[in-house]
Amino acid sequence: MEITVYGPVRSATGAKTVSLEFDGGTVADAVAAFVAAYPRAEPHLYDGDELRSSVRVTVDGERAPMEDRVPADASLTLMPAVQGGSR
C-alpha cells in the first residue's frame, strides 16, 4: 500500500509518500498499521484512542469512513488539519 501524508505527519515519515505492507482490512486497520510503522505520527492523527475528527482519509482518491474496506494495493492519503500561522 502507498500512503501519502500531508502537514506535520510528513515529519514522522521523512517523505511525502511511503510504502507499507498491508494485507487489506478496514480504513481503521490501515491507519493503525501506518501508526505502528511510524509511531511519531500518532499524536497528529489520534486523540486518545480515536482518530481526530479533523483528520481526512482518502482511499484511491475518495474520502472513506473508518469502517470501509481497503484492499492491500490501495493508495491511502492522510490529511491532518493544518493550523494557520499568527497574525
TrEMBL record:
CDD domains: Ubl_MoaD_like (cd17040). Pfam families: ThiS. InterPro entries: Beta-grasp_dom_sf (IPR012675), Mopterin_synth/thiamin_S_b (IPR016155), ThiS/MoaD-like (IPR003749). This is MoaD/ThiS family protein. It comes from Haloterrigena salifodinae.
